[in-house]
Design goal:
single chain; Aminopeptidase; four-stranded antiparallel sheet; alpha+beta; about 25% helix; three-stranded antiparallel sheet
Length: about 170
């Protein structure tokens, strides 16, 4: 497996991963069409990539995409589920079900944090929303994300990118 930067041509795959992130528990709670029609979900990808967007794609050795992580700054007037402030990008992460449990999510998160810290426009913090019961919360807390709020059945978490060591090997 390798990780590369996400580009405009990855938009369709990112929509697929957004659906996986929403349907993280294996139940089909949403369809791609429902997500695209839901403004709070669609704002994570409509117009990908915008100037401040950044992301990474995990691929097999044959170049098949298997997962992605990306971050986007959203305005206060159009917040996402993990919104904290307009200068804190919200991240989305997902891995195709048949490739989960092999460390790909960890590799994607590590790569995205590194881009956040060292990219063309470094960011100080990243945020996310994670539903109760989602095992990804263990990954996020292992990387140093802390709970800063709660909405419905989800926690909003934030990572101080500058205090998170990159690369994050051995964490």
């Amino acid at each position: 497996m390798s990780v590369r930067p996400a580009v405009a041509g990855d938009a369709d795959f990112l929509w697929r991963i957004l659906l996986e992130a929403y349907d993280w528990n294996g139940e089909q709670r949403f369809t791609a069409q429902q997500l695209a029609a839901e403004p709070q979900a669609a704002r994570y990808l409509v117009g990908w990539p915008r100037r401040d967007d950044f992301g990474v794609i995990a691929e097999t050795d044959t170049g098949e995409p298997i997962g992605a992580a990306w971050a986007r700054q959203l305005p206060e007037s159009e917040p996402g589920y993990g919104y904290v402030a307009p200068d804190i990008p919200e991240l989305t992460l997902g891995v195709l079900p048949e490739h989960r449990g092999r460390g790909h999510g960890r590799a994607l998160l590590e790569a995205l944090i590194q881009v956040a810290a060292e990219g063309p426009t470094p960011v100080a913090r990243l945020s996310l929303s994670v539903e109760d019961g989602n095992p990804a919360v263990h990954l996020y807390t292992a990387f140093g994300f802390t709970r800063v709020g709660r909405s419905g059945n989800s926690d909003t978490m934030v990572l101080d990118v500058q205090t998170c060591p990159t690369p994050l090997n051995g964490r």
